Amino acid sequence: MAKNINSVSITVLLFVLLVASTGNFKKKIIYRIFEAQTFCFECGPVPFLGTNADCFNCCKTKYGSPPVVSGVVEGSEKHCHCYC
After folding, report:
1. Residue 77: which pLDDT band, with cuts at 50, 70 and 90?
2. What does the DSSP assignment read for 11-27?
3. Considering only Cβ atoms within 10 Å of each terminal Cβ, which end of the chain, N or C, has fewer?
4. Contact between 82 and 63 (Cβ < 8 Å)
5. If you average pLDDT over residues 33-50, what whole number do you get?
6. What are the φ and ψ backbone dihedral angles of 2, each rounded to 5 degrees?
7. How far is the C-alpha of 73 from the C-alpha of 10, rounded, in Å?
């Protein structure tokens, strides 16, 4: 029984290392950890009645991309916040 568990553990470890070694996985994880976005602008009316995608389009149109990398509707008053 212990031999089977050990074999499964090694197989799972090898699979995790294989997945972790792919470039796409590393890019996503490293970007999320080290590339924090900062609030830089507001866009559109308050309250902003559109979706996050609409907010991002507003930000790109008004301020350009780059510097804008995302747009999120946030807060109780529904502001469109642009992040750089």
Report:
1. very high
2. HHHHHHHHHHTSHHHHH
3. N
4. yes
5. 85
6. -65, -35
7. 45
